[in-house]
Every structure is written in C-alpha cells, then in structure tokens.
Hints:
By secondary structure, this protein is an alpha+beta fold. The protein has helices spanning about 1-50, 55-70, 80-90, 120-125, 145-150, 205-220, 235-245, 290-300, 340-345, 360-365, 375-385; strands at about 75-80, 95, 100-105, 110-115, 130-135, 140, 160-165, 170-175, 180, 185-190, 195-200, 225-230, 250-260, 265-270, 275-280, 305, 315-320, 325-335, 350-355.
Amino acid sequence: MVEKNRKQFLLRLLSYVLVAVLASTLTLALWGQRYSKLTELEKIIDKNFVGEADSGKINDAAASAMIKALGDRWSYYISAEDYAAHVENKNNAYVGIGVTIEKRQDGTGFDIREVTPGGSAQEAGIKPGDILMAADGASVKEMTTDELKDLIRGKEGTKLTVTVQRNEESLDFTVERREIKVKVATGELLDGNIGLVRIANFNANCAKETIALVKDLQQQGASKLIFDVRNNPGGYVKEMLKVLDHLLPEGVLYRSQDYKGREEVEHSDAACVEMPMAVLVNGNSYSAAEFFAACLQEFKWATVVGERTTGKGHYQNTIRLSDGSAVNLSTGKYFTPSGANLTELGGLTPDVLAQVDKETAANIYAQLVSTGEDPQIQAAVKFLQENKG
C-alpha cells in the first residue's frame, strides 16, 4: 500500500514538473520569436545596409514604435538624450538665459517677447523688442524654435554670446546660463474686482503659486475669480488636488483606478473660497487642466467658459530604463467626483460656449492678445458681471 501511494505521488510530481517544463519552454519559445526578429533585422542591417547604422538611434526608434503600437496617445518613449529636458519641464525650471522668443514671420530672426526679471539676459541689458540674430556667432535665421532653444540652453555656469538687433543697431551681449524658474501662476485684478488667475500647468510649484496668487488678489479686493487653464497640458495630480482643496468645500475630489484594479479616493476639507468663479478652457486644456474645470463644475462652484476640452481620462507614470531613457506609460484611469471619465465623455462641455477662430486661438496661445481684447476672457467677465450668485 505504501509502495502504491509512493508511485502515485511520484506520478503526480512528474506531471507537475512536465507542465512546468512545457510552460517554460513555450514562454522561452515566444520570447525567442520576439528576440530573434529584432536580432535578425539587426544582422540584416549590419550585413547589407550600404550606409552607417547608428545602433542607439535604432534602439530608440524601436522602443518608441513599441509604445506607439499600444495605440494610446498619452503614452510615449523618452530617449536618454531627452530625459533631462523632460525633468526640467516637470520641475518648471530650466538652465538658460531667461528670454521668451518667437520666430519672425519674415525669417530674419527671433523676436524677444519677454525677458525674465532677475535673469542673466536682463542683467546683461537685453530688452523685450530686441531681435535675436545670432548665438555664439551662428546665425539663427534658418533655425527652428526648438533648435535655437537647444543652442541657448546648456550647462549651468557656462556663457553664451548673443547678437541682437535693436532698431538699426547690432549689439553683442555675453550672458551666463543659469537655472530659470518658470512662473506657473500669473494674474491681475480686472475692473469690477474680478481676479484673473492664469495657470500655465500643474507641475512643480503650481499649488504654492496659485494659492498665493488667489490670496493676494483677495487682499487687493477681488470678489470674483476667473481661472484660465486654456492651453494648459496638465501635470501632477497632487498639485491640482492642493489647489482644488483650497478652493472647494468638503467632499470627494478625485477617484482613480490603477492597472491592477486598485481604487483610491481623494477628499477636500471644509475650508474653501466662497465667491463667484469661472474657468476658461479650450481644446488644448487636458489632463489635470480639464479635470480641474470639471471638478469645479460638478461642485457647482464655478462656471466653465470657452470650448470643449480634449478628453483625457488616463494617468501616466514615468518609468526609467537601464540606459537612462524612460517611458511615460498610462497605468490607470481617473474619474471626476461623480464618477465620470473624461475620455468616455469626449471632453468637458463648457457651460458658456465661447469659440474663437484659428487665428485668434493661435494669438492667444502665443500670448499676443491683451486681456481686454481676449474674447473668451471677456465672455467670462460678462457672465460674472451679469450673474451675481
């Protein structure tokens, strides 16, 4: 009897081992098929390509194509070369000289639209209205905006010589590259005691700057608020939630579900800012920007003015790879307080529709439209003036 039981045990054990071996073999075979295709292509290129193959570029292209194949517009690959710029963008800081540029339509150079207060460009004497013509002796006429930015930015502490045209005079300035903090929240007090708060993104420092600006406008006498999140690409959920918590009364702010089905719910406390509010949105308001507007709308705390938003309901995590590159991958979904997903809704519908033509939209994006001439800001102003509650 003991011998029979022993044989049955050995047979079961062998069956388990066989299943495990077969499963492992199948997995290795499938992995081998994927690996062999890439290896085969690499060998073909190495053996037959008439030019010089850059293995780094090939790997980057393959990684980028793999992420694109997911069919998710919010997931993307970041090369090791571009990772530092990605971090700078998230930190709302970069190393440069402190100028905002725009390519001239006649191709003669770049208009310097703004000069950052306290930056090295301002210290050197560069002024808004100057035309940037050359950098370190290289003409910028044929450069794209991104190419010029790459040339101007560099290692902190290094110096750069720029040539600008001021009226009919050509001037050279030597400037030092320094860390420049991007101003996230800007604003002003409009007629009628309406405070205008422009939020560029919801990345680092957004909550601190936005809340401070709201308080400052209140001290100046603001009795109504307009939040402008047009052309705002979103950012960190935590930054957005801090701003919403400051503005809204007690309640659910945010719901999320990750790829494993784990759910989280974020709440606000009872402290809030009680006054009439409006939020400006457009087709380039997405992620945290459109969620910010949707949350205020659902709480019936603000009226949304402008155009239908993008419709983004997935959140992403940036995962670093071993070679210094990274992937920004959608790893979960988020939902408004009522449980709505903005992807499924196709974006947020404004309470007050205020559309503009393509030329006006482009000028608003380039910050070439004054507050008084901005039709969407004026639509929000008109609504707040006509609705006291």
